[in-house]
């Protein structure tokens, strides 16, 4: 059984303040009620300010997301799975378990899922969620991934996977990685 809530404001496009309507890769309409998709946003906080900006954001349909994940090397997939399992085990959490009766999406997204470090104390973090139509899927709840975990994950990726991700970023999200690092700081990863 699937459980849903409306799309939270934090997953709206910062470009227009509206929900994402189309897949970044294939252009498929996402709000038909049947299409599963992922939204990912990379955020940057500014020291001394209660302000964050979006480094990049996108929505990608389930089919395109699967194709993107196929570009990851077996080594990277294995490393990421092992890392994820170790993180979940070290925190003692049940992987992505929520109580639907008391779920508060804003509270849930106020800290890193893995470290519980508040997003207001981070320089950068990423939001990721799974959606269907105009609803957020709670069977796989949304996640904030903090900068420390992002750094660890980036170190687990093979050169092949990094090249695939950089190609995706260059084609769909903006400047090449070398310029991106100069403009925005350290590189972020896709999940």
Your description of this structure?
This protein is of the alpha+beta class. The protein has one domain. The protein has six helices and six strands. Strands 1, 2, 3, 4, 5 and 6 form a six-stranded antiparallel beta sheet that branches. β4 and β5 form a beta hairpin. The longest helix is centred in the middle third of the chain and has 18 residues. It starts with a strand and ends in a 7-residue tail after the last helix. The model has no long low-confidence stretch (mean pLDDT 85).
- SSE order, one letter for each helix or strand: EEEHHHEEEHHH
Question: Any idea what the shape is?
Answer: globular
| Count of structural domains | 1
Structural class assignment:
alpha+beta
In the predicted model, the low-confidence regions spanning at least 5 consecutive residues are none
Percent range for β-strand residues: 15-25%
Please report the total strand number as a whole number: 6
Largest sheet: 6 strands, antiparallel
| Count of DSSP H/I helices | 6
């Amino acid at each position: 059984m699937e459980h849903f809530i409306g799309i939270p404001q934090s997953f709206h496009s910062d470009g227009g303040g509206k929900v994402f309507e189309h897949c970044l890769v294939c252009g498929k309409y996402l709000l038909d009620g049947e299409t599963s998709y992922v939204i990912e946003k990379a955020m940057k906080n500014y020291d001394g300010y209660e302000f964050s900006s979006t480094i990049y954001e996108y929505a990608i349909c389930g089919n395109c997301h699967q194709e993107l994940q196929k570009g990851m090397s077996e080594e990277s997939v294995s490393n990421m799975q092992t890392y994820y399992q170790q993180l979940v085990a070290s925190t003692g959490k049940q992987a992505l378990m929520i109580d639907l009766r008391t779920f508060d999406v804003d509270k849930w997204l106020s800290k890193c899922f893995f470290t519980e470090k508040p997003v207001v104390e981070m320089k950068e973090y990423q939001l990721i969620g799974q959606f269907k139509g105009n609803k957020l899927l709670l069977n796989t709840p949304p996640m904030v991934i903090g900068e420390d975990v992002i750094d660890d994950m980036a170190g687990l990726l093979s050169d092949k996977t990094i090249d695939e991700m950089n190609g995706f970023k260059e084609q769909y999200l903006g400047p090449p990685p070398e310029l991106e690092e100069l403009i925005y700081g350290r590189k972020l990863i896709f999940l």
